[in-house]
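Give me the fold.
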Amino acid sequence: MGKSKTSVIVIGGGLAGLTAAKRLLDNGFNVNLYEGRKLLGGKVSAWQDKDGDWVESGLHVFFGAYEEIYELMKELDLYKEILWKEHVLTYTLDQGIGFEFRTINLPSPLHLLPAVFQNQYFSWMEKLSLARALQPMLFGSDDYFRSQDIKSYSDWHHEFGISDKMLKKMFLPMALALKFLPPQELSAKIVLDVSGTFLRTPTASKMGFLSGSPAEKLTNPLAKYITDKGGKIHLNSPVEKLTFESGHITGALLKTGELLKADYYLLALPIHKLQEVLPERLREEKFFDNLYQFEGVPVITAQLWFNQQVTGVNNILFSPDGVIPVYADLGNTTPDYSCQGKSRVEAVVAPARQMWDWDDKKIISEVLSNIKSYFPKLSNGAKVIKSTVVRIPRSVYWPKPGVDKLRPTQTTPIGNLFLAGGYTQQRFYDSMEGAVSSGNRAAKALQVGANLRVRPSND
């Protein structure tokens, strides 16, 4: 009789958990994945409404700087589903005003010259202050970035003489798009780290969209690979608590009362869910107690179907005016969502906590007002024929100043417990790339740990 496979329970069916499950299966582990909801995908989940239209949990864009998610998609023959757009950052303002940032085909940092100096919206003094701020973004060391974690992003920018106008018009929507919070509430380290990554490589900031829903084009094919490979996925199976004895995790207790057991446990949960399932006794260990310093950020996403074309844009859009700092016309960007030339706008509504108590009707009304202000000519006569509002009370973690040093590794002090998720240490934080990267790292760490445990003694 052959030796039984090492068993792993993966808790959480978002991109991090699904990636980890695939990697573990590929390396010979017996994997069971448990997801508390009735659908997979986590922060990139999507579902169909009564009309058969896909509704997404949020607006998801692929960047040229990503790497690990593309490796994963190529393995599944899904990379072809990414449709790359024109390499330009387009800002829309009230009364149809706007400006763009473009790059040119020159080595870094020369590729940024048009973005800094050809822009006509900002004054020369403002553009020179931006040029000064670009130097540490482009050439700052990891030690420098880490040292800036004690400051807010807005404080860091003010040190370089950035005007309030430039901070609001250019950097506010970028911060809200990145972390759904304004610059004064975000660690300078986080934004500088990500900005530096995007600025150093000419193609890093190019953007693409999936050709259809993330369920059909990403998470469902990944789940199918897992089950075809022999892994098992259990939906509607929320874990209430991990059990802990003699220095090891001894089981995962479902809310149904069933106790699941395996050799190893990998948690791929949002931070608030992680805090709920960890045994209280683990807080005696500083590594675990640090995890309770993290908070989730509320996120609201609105989707509006129109009776006509209102934007004429086939790309991501940013705006500092109004309540939708980042949005896209999926009717133009995404072929599967095409509406016979009519617009279907998906917009991040942020900061969400300021509008959390608004009813859906008021949110849609405000989003519609913003869109009509940005595109007054095209949107003349436009009406919303259908809309949705998706609210997530606690989504990505809040990278407030001073928190980055608390981000955990995927390996924990408990030998059979591993972590994956955007809050764990990797380059891209709470993003699709960050989720995949954390899943890869957690699976690799678990594999190393398992190999060490079965290694023959040299005695």
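The mean pLDDT is 90.
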